[in-house]
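Task card 7
Instruction: Convert sequence to structure tokens.
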Amino acid sequence: MKKMVNIMLVGVGGQGVLLASELICRVALKSGYDVKKSEVHGMAQRGGSVVSNVRIGEKIYSPLIARGETDILLAFEQMEALRWINYLKKDGVAIVNEQKIMPLFVAIGRGEYPKRTFEFIAKKTDKIVRLDALELARKAGHHKAANVVMVGALSNYLDVDEETWKKTVEEIVPPKTLKINLKAFELGRKTV
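Output:
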């Protein structure tokens, strides 16, 4: 792993962004890195925006990532990818779930969901990973495992062995969902 990696996880309430960021932090700590995390989840329970900054390196002093300094944008939803794309470095990686969650203003007919999301993202970076995390999670056994699919995709970009990832998944998810989440992780990892 290079000296420092800045990861921004973005999505909406209920997508498991916070569990995913906790999983990434634990994996990094187990691998001997310093980690700092910051979360913003104001109206998350009502479908609002959720953002988690995760910074990993030899020594990290602040949990916040400045605009244009994100190495990896892990977007659980398309509109959230657009909302936060300006935080991505010029040579950064955007891992984007194809899922669209209609915000209230769109659902009630007072606005439109953005069109051509991926065209706009491509103007910011040519390193785009598109995946249907929801469908992969269903293949694993349950749609709620989409967050672990996303983490599986991200795992390809961090210098951490696969076994550490799997052991950490075992520690963090409820025991009754372990088999599904391990399969979700594998499907996400193989997609990239």
